[in-house]
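Long-time lurker, first post.

We've been arguing in lab meeting about whether zinc ion would sit comfortably in this protein at all. Half the group thinks yes, half thinks no, and nobody has a model to point at. So I'm putting the question to the forum: if I give you the sequence and the SMILES, can you give me back a predicted structure of the complex? Inputs are below. Any interpretation is welcome too.
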Amino acid sequence: MISSHQLEEWRKVSEECIRKWGDRSPFGILHTQLHPVDIETMLKALPACLEEIERLKESVLDMVIQFGYYSKVHGRLHITTGGLSALENAFSGLGWEDPHPYPQGECEYPKCHAHATCGTPTKDGYKHVCGEHFSALQALEDK
Ligand SMILES: [Zn+2]
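Top reply:
Settle the argument with this. Predicted structure of the protein with zinc ion, as tokens:
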């Protein structure tokens, strides 16, 4: 969800782009061709455009998480592009460095930082764990 503060910032940047660069504006329209009503119409469309960008970013994020390569850097889980140009573009779109830290994808077994590739219900709720700790966690639950 986009905050009203963020929306206001983007509105200012868009207005500045239209005034300064005209034909290089995000809308690709010459400033001299624009009537103030056109600018107002475009700015009214801005929230819907920003929502669409956010939705697309979430889709890119889902794809990166599913298709990215996982490795450890300094003992913590990271996602990398593996040198694939499609993933490099996706990382760029997300504003991520390569490799990108991904602690939320780590195994929830104590002191394990491996990639959590499976999950199981436990007394303390659903846990995401690595393959090694999947059976260990189930054995603990069976006791
Ligand atoms: Zn583990």
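For your lab meeting: Residues 36-67 form the longest helix (32 residues). The mean pLDDT is 83. Whichever side wins, do check it experimentally.
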